[in-house]
Amino acid sequence: MHFDLNVKQEYRRSEGEGNPAVDMSQAMDDLGVTGDLLDHETVRQLDETGFVILPKFLPSHQVQALRARLTELLVAEGERAGTEVNREPGTMRVSDLVNKGQIFETCFTHPLLLAGVRHVLGEFKLSSLSSRLPLAHEGNQPLHADWRGGAPQPGDYQVFNSLWLLDDFRNDNGATRVVPGSHLWGHAPANAMADPTAPHPAEKLILAPAGSLVMFNGHLWHGGTRNRSGGPRQALHAYFTHRSNAQQLDQATFARPETLAHLSLAARFILDV
């Protein structure tokens, strides 16, 4: 997925807007993000390989509930599904999930996920929350990074992504491929490969059961593969950006009153609303 506008902008709120009592540190405290949530191995993997897989992170009943809600949304929205952000040929997408059920809130407020985001980005906000389901024999993507503004040096990262697996990721149903360590290389796949849709000699498939959480540096080379089996392979994408960047989906513009009514001030800070 290619996401952000990739043009840095000044923090868009004028003085006096928002909630001046909440800053990043306070939001992290309120959401339970503590310094001991990430163990040494998780930090090592995020730093060195650029991704980490946490198997069966969600219980099966929560996975089933998320699946059911997405099915409802796909039916209800029909051809409009995904249009708040983008449509991708060969896939079924739902976007703006922040406003489509409290059930999705854990995907942008879970303390362990936010600890990972903060470790990589420092000051951050949610850029978008969406789902992706490749259709039978579709879904192949070129290797890409989620930032088009050039390849930053380590320590100056701009984006972070996460996959919440709602189906098993197998080698035949469109599992995401990644190139370990590529976030450190300082260039994009399109500048290094004659054909970014072709296999890379160092790529690995993310193979994990439903309910797993995959956290990864958004500058890591990655891409969906073809769903050869035609079986289900649905995932949620909680995508974050540095707080100084534009969001893929302007959360303040799309925020619904009923959404804001149930969100804590800390969660609203993560959304920048």
Overview in brief:
26% of the residues lie in helices and 17% in strands. Helix 1 crosses helix 9 (265-271).
CATH class: Mainly Beta
Principal-axes shape call: globular
What percentage of residues falls in helices of 4 or more residues? 25-40%
**Could you state the CATH homologous superfamily?**
q2cbj1_9rhob like domain
Number of domains: 1
Task: Briefly note the CATH topology name.
Answer: Jelly Rolls
SS-based class: alpha+beta
Q: Give the oligomer, counting copies of the same chain as homo and different chains as hetero.
A: single chain
Q: What Rg do the Cα atoms give? A: 18 Å
| Secondary-structure arrangement, i.e. CATH architecture | Sandwich
Number of strands: 9
- List the helices and strands in order: HHEHEHHEEEHEEEEHHH
Q: Tell me about the biggest sheet? A: 6 strands, antiparallel
Residue windows where pLDDT falls under 50 for at least 5 positions: 1-18
Between the first and last Cα atoms, what is the distance in angstroms?
Answer: 24 Å
> With helices defined by DSSP (H or I, 4 residues minimum), what is the helix count?
9
Average per-residue pLDDT, rounded, comes to 92
Task: Write a structural description.
- The protein is of the alpha+beta class and 273 residues long.
- It has one domain: q2cbj1_9rhob like domain (Jelly Rolls).
- The chain is 26% helix and 17% strand.
- The strands form two sheets. The chain has a six-stranded antiparallel beta sheet. Strands 6-5-8 form a three-stranded antiparallel beta sheet, with no helix packed on it.
- The protein is globular.
- The two termini are 24 Å apart.
- The relative contact order is 0.25.
- The N terminus is likely disordered.
